[in-house]
Specification:
heterodimer; A: alpha+beta; Ubiquitin-like (UB roll); 3-stranded antiparallel sheet; 3 helices; 20% helix; 21% strand; elongated; B: mainly alpha; two-stranded antiparallel sheet; 14 helices; 69% helix; 2% strand
């Protein structure tokens, strides 16, 4: 057995931290851990050392399917040129109160 | 949650309830993993699923007008708005699922008529001006109702509402500008706008629900901080907002009792026809049967798409297994 083969390969986990009650869990970063329980503990030690959170989620990185970053422009093209989805597009009613 | 359904309160349940009450008292949010009283859960499931159903059924009156909207620009705007409503329904269904009910159960309740949706969508929208009135008055009332819900005590509901309110900011303006264009148009167009406002004004005011005295569930919802303001308070706030808007448009709001009350610092307005409200709620509105039939048909006719997608995913998964 070579050294490279003996190397430990713990799976990668993505860590999501809720900074306070009422807010969403937000992606904080990732870490390696042998199982989910240790991943949560390591995440606490790694990502909440300054009380950044009140709740942690860990998700196996392999379970995440992502869009292709190289396709970014084409993939997200549709909303472009559709300013009418924003209130600021409607200028005729700009001065109307409470609108 | 088994603790919540147990009929007798054990000491541990009493302490859980105390913890829940303390969170509510401190204006904190309740999250899906927290213990909560069964009645709180039920109230939320009813309100949130009804809210989701309203978004889904709410696509119909405007969806009907996409092909007939008077310009490409108006079609594009209307499509964007109907897309938003579909999206808002989906945010709310997902948030409701965190309470332990499945999407299929909710859809069944909608399709069998067990669950309600907002009665406003049981009115027909026969003229183009109705797209303006729906945006200005119906979405306006919905927004007045929804803004305080961003602070609802149940975390997933509040967060869904934040997203929804942000996206809806254009809905009311686009409706207002449809009416503004008509009011700046020919006499016939002005009449069309006024006739539409005449039909939508009272039903929009009724969207806030029955008067406080006849709304017994409201008080509990306010104690739980799901609801932040009473039906009558929200209705008053809405009337105060739309009067100057109506003046800007040059339309008359069809209420002879509508006038500024200096002492109250609010507009007084006339009694609403609550018999009509309850009749529509019971099913005898203009479009109750139509809306539900169309929804059921859309679901049934979409079955093959869901089946095909599932078959495709299963085949892809099994060929992946074979390859590995």
């Amino acid at each position: 057995m070579t050294g490279a083969e003996r190397r430990e390969t713990w799976p990668l986990w993505e860590v999501f931290v809720r900074s306070s009650r009422g807010l969403s869990h937000v992606h904080a970063g990732s870490l390696h851990a042998p199982d989910a329980e240790l991943a949560v503990r390591n995440a606490r030690d790694l990502y909440t050392r300054r009380s950044e959170g009140v709740s942690i989620w860990v998700v196996p990185a392999s379970a995440i399917t992502a869009s292709d970053p190289d396709e970014k422009d084409a993939y997200f093209e549709s909303p472009r040129g559709k300013d009418f989805r924003r209130a600021t597009y409607y200028t005729a009613s700009e001065s109307v109160p409470h609108l | 949650m088994s603790a919540a359904t147990s009929p007798t309160a054990s000491p541990s349940e009493a302490s859980k309830l105390a913890a829940f009450d303390a969170l509510i008292a401190e204006n904190q949010r309740i999250e899906p993993s927290d213990w909560m009283p069964e009645a709180y859960r039920k109230t939320l499931v009813r309100q949130m699923s009804q809210h989701a159903h309203s978004e889904i059924i709410g696509m119909q009156p405007e969806g009907n007008w996409i092909t007939r909207a008077p310009s490409l620009k108006r079609k594009a705007i209307l499509m964007a708005k109907v897309q938003d409503e579909a999206g808002h329904g989906l945010y709310l269904y997902s948030a409701t699922e965190t309470l332990g009910i499945t999407r299929d159960e909710m859809l069944d309740q909608l399709h069998t008529g067990k669950a309600k949706y907002s009665s406003i969508f049981n009115y027909l929208a026969p003229s183009w001006a109705d797209m303006g009135s729906i945006g200005w008055l119906v979405d306006g009332a919905a927004i007045a109702n929804q803004v305080p819900l961003c602070r609802a005590s149940y975390g997933p509901y509040g967060r869904a509402m934040v997203r929804i309110c942000k996206e809806e900011s254009f809905h009311q303006r686009q409706g207002f500008e449809i009416l503004l264009a008509l009011m700046n148009g020919t006499e016939a167009q002005q009449r069309m706008a006024q006739e539409s406002v005449d039909r939508w004004y009272a039903p929009a005011l009724m969207m806030f629900g029955p008067p406080d005295a006849e709304s017994p569930n409201s008080q509990q919802s306010m104690a739980w901080k799901i609801k932040r303001f009473s039906n009558d308070d929200l209705r008053q706030r809405f009337v105060d907002m739309i009067v100057p808007q109506a003046e800007f448009l040059g339309v008359t709001l069809p209420d002879p009792d509508l006038r500024w009350n200096e002492d109250r610092g609010h507009y007084d307005f006339g009694e609403l026809d609550w018999d009509e409200f309850y009749a529509v709620l019971r099913g005898s509105g203009q479009a109750n049967a139509l809306r539900l039939a169309k929804r059921r048909a859309a679901h049934d006719e979409g079955a093959w798409v869901r089946e095909a997608a599932r078959a495709y995913a299963e085949r892809a998964a099994s060929s992946e297994r074979l390859a590995s």
